[in-house]
Amino acid sequence: MAEIENRPTNFIRTIIDADLASGKHQQTHTRFPPEPNGFLHIGHAKSICLNFGIAQDYKGLCNLRFDDTNPEKEDINYVKSIQEDVSWLGFKWDGDICYSSNYFEQLHGYAVELIEKGLAYVCFLSPDQAREYRGTLTEPGKNSPYRDTPVEENLALFEKMRKGEFKEGECVLRAKIDMASSFMVLRDPIIYRIRFAHHHQTGDKWCIYPMYDFTHCISDALEGITHSLCTLEFQDNRRLYDWVLDNISIGCHPQQIEFSRLNLEYTVMSKRKLNDLVVNGHVEGWDDPRMPTIAGLRRRGYTPASIREFCKRIGITKQDNMVEMGMLEACIRDDLNENAPRAMAVLDPIKVVIENFEDAKVEQLVAPNHPSDESMGTRELPFTKELYIEREDFRVEANKKFKRLVLGKEVRLRNAYVIKAERFDEDAQGNITTLYCSYDADTLGKNPSDGRKVKGVIHWVSATHCVEAQVRQYDRLFSVPNPAAAEDFTQTLNPESLVIINQAKLEPSLAQAVAEQGFQFERMGYYCRDSKATELVFNQTVGLRDSWAKIENA
């Protein structure tokens, strides 16, 4: 657990420090309150790290609460996936999981209290009429003709709503605040509506459901939340948050504090847009490795530590900005560079025959699993007469800048010998099919004895001992930095976001890789074994370098 003295500073923590110092609160109590209507994405990870991080650093509490007031869009599978994501990121919630639906009876009671105080009424305006009465940003709204219905009649009408005696959309319960307010959210907002929908927690007990803005503040108060942290789009809603709590008989009034949401280049953060990608088949599912969901990032090979580090680096401010994808990729690259074992994989193979190596001989070479961490141990690499190297690592002719294998010249095989390209075969189209080489048997782990210098190093696998796998190369899901700004964001999808390589040649140790385990494929990038495929499939996590930085700065 982080020490308070070493915690990151931001304006929210400054507020908390002052509240604790003044005695306003003896302990912090935060909450992470997702709606179970989709998978969590990297933007939610920022909120998770903030809320749970504050609880850790201040030795306070943090609840996991599902704001489940919209049963038509919610699903128990989303509930389960959110729990898994929070746990996978390394956080534990305090006590039992909370649901806003746990408070439906109390919420109903507070709605009745508002009616009794003359602060809520049943309204029969149609949705179109309600929009007309609401006014605009420059013009005040008009009072509903039902606004002055007597209290006793409103109580009876609300009870009929509860009993299911009205149709969906026939009427709603509205708070009576101010139709002339400059804040649209205060123009008699709806606080209850009729929905004949099965709820994943309460079944068919209710046919009226409270609105989010009415539910959220009361749920916070019932749970004793001290600081209710949310993103900037809820800034105006804070006025309704405070109004509800100020006008009901409840003993706790949490402080709502807003911070900027995460906007990440080359992706979208709208649950609606992400759902469109899934429903319309643009991706394979919510956990497609191209998706910015926590499940997708996990399947792609991102680690909890890398996502926590990313959230730490971007910080907490009130300033909206667009974060470069390269910052997220740098976090996983730094993590895996230090912690991922090395392995060799040839993605575009060309066969190499070592002509002066014995035909049936198999020499087991020892290679470190990490070049700077001996504790990771070693592995054996079978070296045989026939090998595979990357097609791009050989050229018939090349200038001095090409440090790989050239006809008539030498290169070192990683963790093995120096070889020399002697000749090659090609097919009718001019594609090289086989490369014939010789090897210097006295160069294992040392330079040539005659002092000649061999500068290049390339990777390889044994042609007779390698395992075949599918390798999925991933790129940015969208081709423009801000796809959400496009008229149709799906028109900016990157057609090269997924390239599938079949029959890649991998060193035999990779056959034992476990799902989600990250490796550095030497000279190629970072990869992990796919968690859903039954066959041997590896997903590219990130390249060794930020190739996009060069493109964008060109």
From TrEMBL:
GO biological process: glutaminyl-tRNA aminoacylation; glutamyl-tRNA aminoacylation
HAMAP family to which the protein is assigned, alphabetical: Gln_tRNA_synth
Transport is among the record's keywords: no
UniProt motif 'HIGH' region: location: 34-44
Taxonomic source organism: Pseudoalteromonas byunsanensis
Enzyme class: ligase
Complex and partners: Monomer.
Protein's recorded name: Glutamine--tRNA ligase
InterPro entries reported in the protein's UniProt record: aa-tRNA-synth_I_CS, Gln-tRNA-synth, Gln/Glu-tRNA_Ligase, Gln_tRNA_ligase_bac, Glu/Gln-tRNA-synth, Glu/Gln-tRNA-synth_Ib_cat-dom, Glu/Gln-tRNA-synth_Ib_codon-bd, Glu_tRNA_lig_a-bdl
Gene behind the chain: glnS
